[in-house]
TrEMBL record:
Residues 12-83 form the Septum formation inhibitor MinC N-terminal domain. InterPro entries: CAP/MinC_C (IPR016098), MinC (IPR013033), MinC_C_sf (IPR036145), MinC_N (IPR007874), Septum_form_inhib_MinC_C (IPR005526). This is Probable septum site-determining protein MinC. Residues 137-235 form the Septum formation inhibitor MinC C-terminal domain. Interacts with MinD and FtsZ. Residues 121-135 have a biased composition (Low complexity). The gene is minC. GO terms for biological process: cell morphogenesis; division septum assembly; regulation of cell division; regulation of cell septum assembly. Cell division inhibitor that blocks the formation of polar Z ring septums. Rapidly oscillates between the poles of the cell to destabilize FtsZ filaments that have formed before they mature into polar Z rings. Prevents FtsZ polymerization.
């Protein structure tokens, strides 16, 4: 009786989902050069890159022999705690190399590939969309992480070095930003980061990031907004603050 009951109970379910993944574009077939630049990026923001899922975009090197070194390059990424999940672009040679490396193949040009739908989902009555905001009154201290799921994050104080704040929507910081701020973490490319004193370690919007060494020094300590412009991240002065227009 027990065995029969266990076999009739559904144990798992497969569903399709849109996921935002970081795309690593390979621009040279020189594996040593790729490795050196990876090391430099990791030194800039080691916590951000650790356990980061990656899609390898090989379009720019599709006509080279880099596919022969793909399994080794995937091993290099894993040794540095990246999580390569697949490639995008290339021909049958690249697909064979991806299979040998134990990763998948993504087709199409979208920056956020859709997972394969295993079965249709039943139609559901749409619920009204809400965008709740999360308000933090006190300083976010080093080692702390605050995440606003489904909406904006409003911080009425500062974000210390070593602290991390995340939001599915915008991030508003009415003090200084000295730690890391990640807006649009579920793929909202229209999300922005606003702060009154910009000295961040790292900022990202929908997976596109800048680290401290890449900032225009003219914006340090200023009231700014951070936004995506296509595939680039831009820092702009806040209108009406610090002379910004």
């Amino acid at each position: 009786m027990t065995e029969q009951t266990e076999t009739t109970v559904q144990a798992l379910e497969l569903k399709g989902r849109m996921m935002t993944l970081t795309v690593l574009r390979l621009l040279t077939p020189d594996v040593k050069h790729l490795g050196r630049e990876l090391e430099q990026r990791m030194q800039q923001a080691p916590d951000f890159f650790r356990q980061l899922p990656l899609i390898l975009d090989v379009e720019a090197v599709a006509d080279t022999d880099l596919h022969l070194d793909l399994p080794g390059f995937v091993g290099l990424l894993r040794a540095r705690e990246f999580l390569p999940v697949g490639i995008r672009g290339g021909d049958d040679r690249w697909r064979s190399a991806a299979e040998q490396a134990g990763i998948g193949v993504f087709t199409g040009g979208s920056e956020a590939p859709a997972a394969r739908r295993a079965e249709p989902e039943p139609a559901a009555t749409p619920e009204p969309e809400t965008s709740p905001s999360t308000t933090v009154l006190q300083q976010v201290r080093s080692g702390q992480q605050v995440y606003a799921r489904g909406g904006d994050l409003i911080i009425l104080s500062s974000v210390s070095p070593g602290a991390e704040v995340l939001a599915d929507g915008n991030i508003h910081i009415y003090g200084g930003l000295y730690g890391r701020a990640l807006a649009g973490v579920r793929g909202d490319t229209g999300a922005r980061i606003f702060c009154m004193g910009f000295n961040a370690e790292l900022v990202t919007v929908a997976g596109t990031y800048l680290v401290n060494e890449q900032f225009d020094k003219a914006y340090l300590g200023q009231a700014v907004q951070v936004l995506r412009d296509g595939e680039e991240l831009r820092i702009r002065p806040l209108p009406g603050v610090n002379g910004g227009r």
